[in-house]
Structure formats: structure tokens, C-alpha cells
Amino acid sequence: MINTMECAVDAQSLISISLMKIHNSRTQRGGIKLHKNLLVSYVLRNARQVYIKEKYAEIYRMQQYEEVMTVCNEIQQLNPLELDAEDADDEEQARAACCGEDVSLCGSACHRDAAHTRTASALPGCSHLEYDGKEPEPSFYRSCCMEASPVSECDQFSANGRAHCNKTTVLDLDTHVVTTVENGYLHQDCCCDALQCGQGAQSPAKKRKVEFACCVSDVEELSDFTAARKRVKREDCSYTHPDYTDTSNISNLISIFGSGFSGLLSRQTDLEQICSKQVLASLGAWTRAIVAF
Amino acid sequence: MLYCWFKYLSRFCFFPADIISTVEFNHTGELLATGDKGGRVVIFQQEIENKSQPQFRSEYNVYSTFQSHEPEFDYLKSLEIEEKINKIRWLPQKNAAQFLLSTNDKTIKLWKISERDKRPEGYNLKEEDGRYKDPNTITSLRVPVLIPMDLMVEASPRRVFANAHTYHINSISVNSDNETYLSADDLRINLWHLEITDRSFNIVDIKPANMEELTEVITAAEFHPHQCNTFVYSSSKGTIRLCDMRISALCDKHSKLFEEPEDPSNRSFFSEIISSISDVKFSHNGRYMMTRDYLSVKVWDLNMESRPVETYQVHEYLRSKLCSLYENDCIFDKFECCWNGNDSVVMTGSYNNFFRMFDRGQRRDVTLEASRENSKPMQVLKPRKVCAGGKRKKDEISVDSLDFNKKILHTAWHPQDNIIAVATTNNLYIFQDKVN
Fold first, then answer.
1. Cβ neighbours around B16 below 10 Å, total
2. Which domain holds residue A41?
3. Which of A9, A155, A182, B171 could connect to A213 by a Cys-Cys bridge, CB 3.0–4.6 Å?
């Protein structure tokens, strides 16, 4: 167990630093260093564990577990599109990436500040935890996409203020399998610049659904670039209030790296399993991007 | 042994842009090769013993310089391949020429270094300047003769071993059979024959079927000095695996696993980083091996897998500074380690241009500094001490004063004598022990 004397604030800064390192490594000469990035991902995992523990402890102190469940149930009733009418406060707190955590944390992580009780109304991330027969929607918050080219997407992002990563292509160096992920917009959670992306939000007042591409196919044996492996995903993506805070960035980023290299997870609760498989799938391209370089 | 403090012998200053990336003595110690970030190899040669000045008998001078690797671009993967020399390994000498292997991230090259001190003169068909004569003007024949010339050292690439590594090569090691060698990258180890460049055998592959399940990478590998079937490789998780190539063609399953359980009281955010092994070296007698992780050097008995037989703390005072060292990337520095000729002393580098020696038998250690202030001829190095906390004594240096940009990652010990080569960022220092 990590010495929890290192508080959540240190964990947050470590997460930011680690993500910056990973981003910087993509543009450094000689390609991505697999060893270094693996070690950085360990630090990310450790910092995430501490951060989540601190968050959990904080929320548990503030709220009852049952209240959170009730709130989650209420949210299931809502059509996500109708949340456009929610006020800005809810939007701000709706971005917390709760997927990958257990239910009470799921609810609580959506609260930037535990005192904002209304945040419970914008918790799409909890929806998939319901077992009422509805098809679960993996409505957690998508992390950034990666470009296969050495050009940093931050350059793209800052260049035009609106990052349109239409397609992310990553190449497994050994099997030469190309994985393509298509999306419409770059979420501000892009690890390329966790702290700045929030300012570049495109439509801060509206939630959007972002559809990710396509189908799964087995392409293990192909050695040319025509093979592609795709996954079916539907994810929701909401955009930030202009006063996007670092802590909300951190929460989002924590979920993004909720699995990281999945082998790093030593234990997972059942609830985490459900969430993390989906997060895991989305992180495949990320991992392979590291490999590809 | 450590009572005979080392004295300064010579210093070679590389250009500021040339960061030394590897240092290696050959098997006799007469030659010392360095590789740098610019892809160059510089070889130093020990001077012939000067009877009139015995104290200078070990001086090294530049012998040969050549460009080993150039920067390349992999168009297929849109990757630039650095020309930095990661490792140099000498082959045992078989004839008048010397051979060494040098590698960057992707390609290994076999270089022949030979001397030429004679040149032919008196060709029948060629003028002295090389122009060809008209055969009709030749009226007599003569036999060309070899005449002495100034010594010229030539380096020529004899073999290029390419396209066998997807990931970055971190180690090469020549087998004791003098026919094969291994090369290791992050996930695989390949076995080559020195004569064959278009084929290599993969002997270790730790790449998981799903890269998302990756938990460790290979960090170093070395053949046993006497047993040609045995090699070890270290991992980023702090484990060392010993493999026997007689057991199976693919050595994914180790014969021995050397691992020390982690001390749970030392757990931190950076536990995984500081336990990653940066170097592994067999002792000359083949009974032990030494590993270097971020804070310590460990000596392992090959017959005991459960824990090392000796552990030496290199700079334990850095344990409380890991967060800062993570921020400035110093925590990723890969320090090497080396044995002396009779395996009684081990040496490794640290920060502030300090390097440390541990006498295994006497259980004593010393910290020395490679700096220009100590660069007066024959000057004996003064032991240094770092003050970890509390009142700083005179001549001690406090942890906060350490310069983390000045690091000694590469050191080498002469195979027979007590001569050491210590590389700072772009200076190579050679020290020898005090001759009584």
C-alpha cells in the first residue's frame, strides 16, 4: 500500500506531470521509449490509487451511499439530450469521469464540490451501472485520440482552436495491424494538454454525443496495412464550462488511465470490471500508440 | 585495495555536444573505446611502458576515431532512429586486427580496427600518384616493395546486423564461444552469428499477446563469461532471469529467477521506477552477478535466487528526493556498474560527478569525484562525503547542493590493472591507483 501520507494534491500534480511526460515522449527524437513510458504509467497508476482513495474518503464523509444510489436511479430516467437545459453548474460537474470506480465514487466523483448536490442530475457515467434491463450505455468520458504522425495534436489543437481529430491510426509494429479510431471532436481531456485544453472547449454549454467507429474484426495474421481492427463504441462527451478546473481535469484523466496497461491492475471490484473493460478497450489504441512509436 | 586512493591520470574532453554514452575496455585493457550521442567511436590506446618514467606507464592517448552510426529515418514507421551509440563490446583478439561491436537503437555493426604502417611502392602499371601508366611505355618489370609509413589506424565496417529489432536495443553481449553474440531490446533477445548478418534467432520474447497487458520490459542482458549456453536478462520489475539455451530454443521460461521481495515500508509512488534494473554484469569468475537499480548495487550468488548476497547503497539520501528527481527526469537515469579484475571491488556512478567504489571483502566504500579541480597530474583523489541531514561537517556536501546535471552513468575498470575510466557528460577521466 502506498504511503498515504502523500496526499491527493501530490497525486494530482504527479498525474499532470506524468501525462505531460507521456505526451512529450511522443515527439522526442528516436521515438517513444517503451521502458520509460511503462514506468511513467506505473506512477500514474499509483497516483491514481491515492487520488481515488482520498476522493472516496472525502465523499464518504459527506454523503450517504444510499443517497448516491438514489441519485443514480433518477438519472437513469433522464434522456441525456434533455440535459442541455441544465444549468451551467451541472455541466461543470457532469464531466467527472466516474467510470472505473465503484458506484458511490461514481456519484461522488461527479461532484467537483460535494456541496453541490444538484450535480447528481448530470451523471451519465452512472447509467451503465443500472441493471434494470436497459441496454447499458457506456457513457463515460472519452479520452483524447492519438495521431499516428509525429505531429502533436496539441499543435493541431492550438493552431485552430478546434481540434478535429477525425481519425486516429496506430500501428502495431510487429503485426503491422492498423487500428483506426474515428471521432468527431477532440475532448478537452486530451492528455496532450490537460490544463489548457479546457479553455479550448468548443460548445461549453452543450453536451454532445461522440460516436466512435465501427466494427470488430479479427486481423491477427495480416501483415500489410489493409488490415484494421476496430471496436464498437458509443461514448458521451460533454464539454466544459469555461471555468474548468484542474481537479475536474484530473478526475477525467484518472478515468482515462483507469486501466492504463491493464496488467498493472492488481485488483478490481466487479463494478470496476464492468467499467474498466470499456475503458480498457478505448485505451488499446493508446497503448498501441506507445508501442507504435 | 581502497586504501590506495586513485590518482588522476588523464582527461579527454569531448565537444560539448558529444555526450559520452558508453565506455568499454578491451580484453587486455590496452584499448579503451567510447561511444557518444553523435554516433562516433573514439578509441584510446595505452602507451607503451616508458621505462624512464614508470609512473606514466599507463597513459592513454587517442588511437582511432570513426563515425559508427548515422541518424536514419524509418519511413515505414515515421520514426527517426538516433545515432547514439548505446553499447560497445570488444571481441577477443584473434589476429593483428581488433574487432568491436557497436550498436545504436536498431542496428549493430562489427568494426575492424587495423593498423597500417607500411605501404607498397613501385607498381608497374601505376604512377606514384595513382595515375595509370600506358602499358606501351613499360620497358621493364619490377616487384613492388613495402616501405614504412606513419602509423595509420583504419576502422572499417565488416558486418552490419540490421532489421532484427522492433524496439530499442539496450544490450549486446559477445558469447564465450567467440562465434555468437546476443542483442536485447525492450521485449526480445536475439542470437546472432558473427559471420551471418541476414539471420538471427529469437531466444527470448516477452511481448504479451495484448500489449495492454505489458507489465515489464527487458533492461539488460549478458552472456555468462564461461558457459556459452547461459545468459541472464534483467527486467524493469527488478527481476533477473537466468536462461539455459540447451533446454529449449526459445528461452521464455527461465532456469532461475532472481528476485528480492520489496520492503513494504519503502513503498512510494516511485517504487516501480527505482526497482527497475539498469545494468547487469557477471563477475569475471562467473560465480556472481551484479545488478544496479536506481539507489543500490546488488551482488547475487548464481546459486541463490531468493535474495542478493550483498547490497550496497549508492545514494540512499536521494530516497526522499524522488519526487523532484521524477520531475526533472533524473529518476530515469540508467547507471551502469562494473567489477574490478579480481571481483573484489565494484564501482558505479552517481550525481555531482561522484562515483562510488565498494570493497566487498573489506566492507568499505569510498566516494570520489571526477572533476577538473582534481585534474592536476598525479593528484590523489580526495574522498567525498554527502551530508544527508543534520549539521554539515567541513568538506561535506549537502544533498541540496548536488548538481543533478553532472552524472556519471558509465564507468569501466581495466581487466587486470587498477585503472578506471569514468565518463562524465562529455569528459572521460582515467584514474589509476597510487603506485607505491
1. 8
2. 4-284
3. A182
